[in-house]
Amino acid sequence: MHTSVRHSQGRLLGALLVSGALLLAGCGVRLDGPPPEVPSPEPGEILRQEAALETAEILALAEAAGAEAQASGATGDAPGDLAHIASDATTHLTDLGGVWTAPPRPSATDGADSGDEATEPAPTPSGPVTGEDVLDALEGSTAADSAADPDADADLATLLASIAINRALWAAELRADLGLPGGPDGSADPATADLDIPDPLPASAAPVVRTLDALGYTQEVIAARGDSSERGEAAAAALTLRDMAEDVAVAAGIDGTDADPRVAAYSIDTADLQGARETLIAELLPGWLAQVPDAETAVRAPLIALATQAAFLGQDPDLRIATYPGLG
C-alpha cells in the first residue's frame, strides 16, 4: 500500500505538470519557443526617438569639430561655440530620454543573440569634421517640423520647439563665426521675416496681445520724441505692432472682451526707452512658445516661426544662447 501511495502522488504531479504546460500554451506562452516580439512603438515615441537620434548626431559632430578646431589651434569664437553646441546637445539628448536601443534577444534554439537589429546611437564620425558639417546639421534639423507634428503631445512639442529655436540661433552664430554670409539657401534674416498671425489661437495668448500693444505704444513714444530721421520708422513700427496685437486678440477670441488686456497707455521707463523696448521684446519669445501646448496642431508651425523671430530679435550678442530659449 505504501508503494501504491507514492506511485499515485507521482502520477498526480506528472498530471499537474502536463496540465500546467497546456495552460501556458493556451495563454500564448511557449516554454520552448522564441521570445515575444518587441511591441511596436507609438507614433509619439517614434518622433521622440527620431529627435534623439538627430540630437546624438549633432552632439557627435560638434564634439568632433571642436576637437579638430582645438588640435589645429583655431582662433576666434568657433571653438567655444562648438563646445556650447555640444553641451546643449548633451542636455537635449538627456531630456529627450536618450536613444532607445533594443536589448539583446535570445534565439529560440541556443540562447544566442537572435540577430534582430537594434537602433544604435549616432556613431562617432570617422573622418575629419568641420564647423560647416555642424552648421549643415543644425540648419537641416527637423526639430521644428517634429514639434508641429500632430503625433507630438504638448510636452514633446514644447520641448522640440525650444530645441529648434536653440539650433536656429546657434546656426546663425556659427555661420558668422565661419565668415559665411546670409542664412541657409540665401534666406532672409529671421528677425525681419514677414510672418502672419495664425488663427485660431488659444485664449491664453492674452499676454502676447498686451506685449505687442505695449511695444506699439513704446514705439509711438519713441517716434514722438525722436528726430525727423527716426520718427517715420518708429511710427511705422508702432502701427505694425498695434495691428499685430489686434490680429492676435481676434484670433484668440478676446478682442473687445473683458479678457482683452490692452489699455490706452502703458507704464514704461521714458528715461530709457530703448531698455523698455528690449524688456518687452524679451517677453515675446516665452509668450509665443507658451501657446504651443494649447494651440491646435495646425497652427504650431507658424507659432514656432513667430517664437523663432522673437528669439532673434531679443538675443543679446554678448550673452550665451540659452539651452532652452523661451523656457527659462
From TrEMBL:
Residues 95-133 are annotated as: Disordered. It comes from the Bacteria. This is DUF4439 domain-containing protein. The lineage of its organism: Bacteria, Bacillati, Actinomycetota, Actinomycetes, Micrococcales.
